[in-house]
Structures
1.
Amino acid sequence: MGPPLWLFLRLDEGVPRTEDAERYDAFILGLETLSRPVSILTVLLLLLWLYSTVKRTRTLGLIDLSPIGAVLGACIPLVSVFVTHVCIRDLRTALGGHSEKWLLPIYWVTLISGQLALFIQEDLFRTDASMVPTGLLVGVAAQALFLMNACIAIRIIGQLQGLLEARQTEAVMRDSSSLGGGT
């Protein structure tokens, strides 16, 4: 929420001072430059996690999804929303996770709402100078939505990892008891 809020708090009668606007623009440009490689790395790690989780769940015989299909489906624009939603939902069901089902829909609501807020912010900035304060507040809202989205994503991944590890432990215990029982 930092940069838009910083500039909003420094407005002079609803208009940013030139030096503040230049500092804001330079900061945003630097932030965008730094965030690109981090975003790419995050997406790659998420796809690797998705592949590994689907593969491990499939190995346990709990799901029929293809790990490659899940990853490829997550890479197709617009289709990825549906495929990823179904994949995560099916993983949760297969692993026995029935609590907090509301997290996945809220994840998508915060992601899409944050993106829409960014589009609105850009449009407000292009309209005229009187819309800058409103645009900055919309930017703060967008950042808050993205922060909530990241927290929800971390929670969903943590839940799925915990469920998967529990199922793997059960499988190991079952296999070791069946080996011990036959001796």
2.
Amino acid sequence: MKKLTLIIVTAVLCAAMLAGCATPAAETSASVVPSESAEASEPAAAANTDYMSWTGAEWDAANSDEQFAAAEAVLLKVGDAMMSNYGELVEQAKSDETVKAQIDEQVESLKSSIATFFKSSPEATLSDLVAASTQAVESLGN
């Protein structure tokens, strides 16, 4: 059951990364300055923002915004492990509202997969999920 859950989570991560990469990014500038709206959208009340250390208990205790931020962190970690500058590309792509909506939809889907992962492995951490997902995706490429 744990292997099946991991495969499903990996598939969702891959789909989310492909959605972020497949959409044309806005023109890039020499420097990217975060906007005030991007800062305002981050959860303000996150007590433990070291998302990679979260177990099922922290996931269950988190509100929806915190879970979204944690799922996005997982997506970016796996993406960065597979492709350099993935996180920067995603942030640049988010400047297009249509693309941002697609990425946010994928992150919401990933939240469900992470919840399923923690139901089958409550003592595992998000870091464990990232490591296993990265390894599974790399093995698909070989």
3.
Amino acid sequence: MAIERGLGGNMTVMGERLPEAWMVEWHRNRRVEFPIRRWLFLQLTLLYFGISAGTLIRLPDILDEPGWRYFGYLAIVLYVGTAGFVVWTFVTQRPYLVVDHTGIHSGRRFMAWTDIGSIGLLRGPVRQLPIHPKNVWAKDLVITRQHVNDLQSFRTWLDEVLEEQRRTESPRDDDASDWRRTH
């Protein structure tokens, strides 16, 4: 289970927990879900609305001016749409980052274990973890702190899971070629 009740009814998000909890969940279900960390998402949302507060304050004046009226209506539609998206994301904590027996799902992006070339190093001031595909022309799958607080620990854990997946991968072609050689 990705979310468990802590003391006092607080919800603990898997991305805030230690790698040992991830490994226990992995061995129990072969699946670990990392929903959006609400506090980080709320901080980014407040920053967005704080920066755009100037437009909200001037909105009545914008609606009164004939040349800018359509811009005012567009701003209202954008704010209502953004607020709806923020509420939906805050309540559902989606998109999820899911690590399961088939691969890594990040929102709508997916990379199978067999397609992963390597787990990259942390990069950038906002700390991103790239997962490099074997196909050099394919795009990296990028993990941010939006789902996992400690990306360095997540990288180490993900390396362990990747190695485990590579060890347990059944080589179908080798089995077939062994059969042909013996018969």
